[in-house]
Amino acid sequence: MPENVNQQKVSDDDPTLGVSAPSAEKRARSSIAASLPSTQTLGINQWYLSDEFTDAYCKAFTNTDLEEPLFSIKHEQNDCEGIIISSPFHTGKLRSILPKEFLYGLKKELSELNWHERLNDLYWFHQTDDLALNGKQHIKALRDYLSGEEFVGFLERITGTELARGYLDLAAQ
Q1: N or C: at which end does the chain have fewer Cβ atoms within 10 angstroms?
Q2: CA 85 to CA 91: how far, in whole Å?
Q3: How far apart are CA 21 and CA 10, in angstroms?
Q4: Phi first, then psi: what are they for 104, rounded to 5°?
Q5: pLDDT digit string (tens) for 71-115?
């Protein structure tokens, strides 16, 4: 069993909730997650935040008439690369967005968690529990950064799409 900080299960039939269980559960997880100790600050490679990258990537990502099935913008001096695949729908991939040292620590923490077998109509996979309650240093830093204004604003700038703020569902697969 992973050592999660302040684990709490919200029951669907708890009469004290007063609202539907899913939204109450999310509020409980969000409240617990907010009380976890702070960790290191995480950030993405600064080149991705530059106007040079964000402007070019957003222009290609929002172009529905992109003639090439694959668009790529690379940094000349590091492994950073933004890729857009335009067919059958636009999807993006950012290489080397997070520091390698951080990813090694994250991988180690994820390997220590319990993984559950999942199956649906199309495929079979393994997944962790919701990482909102996990207090491990790298997992918490990732969760906090992905739901933070810098990263959410960055995603909005490169996709031209307004995103919702607030709770982030996060699990490893």
Answers
A1: N
A2: 5
A3: 7
A4: -65, -45
A5: 898 988 788 999 999 888 888 999 999 999 999 999 999 999 999
Question: Is 73:53 a contact under the CB 8 Å cutoff?
Answer: yes
In sequence order, the β-bridge partners of residue 95 are 81
Evaluate whether 60 touches 69 at the Cβ level (below 8 Å).
no
Task: Say what the pLDDT of residue 136 is.
Answer: 92
| Burial environment of residue 170 by CB neighbours within 10 A (0 to 12, 13 to 18, 19 or more) | middle
- Can you give the length of the chain in residues? 173
Q: How far apart are the first and last CA of the chain?
A: 17
- What span, in angstroms and rounded, lies between the C-alpha atoms of 149 and 157? 12
Beta bridge partners of 94: 82
Q: Please state, in angstroms and as integers, the Cα–Cα distance from residue 171 to each residue in 3, 5, 26, 56, following that order.
A: 16, 16, 14, 31
Q: At what angle do helices 100-111 and 137-146 cross, to 10 degrees?
A: 120
Sequence-ordered alpha helix ranges (H) in 14-71: 21-34, 51-62
Structure tokens at 149: 């204004």
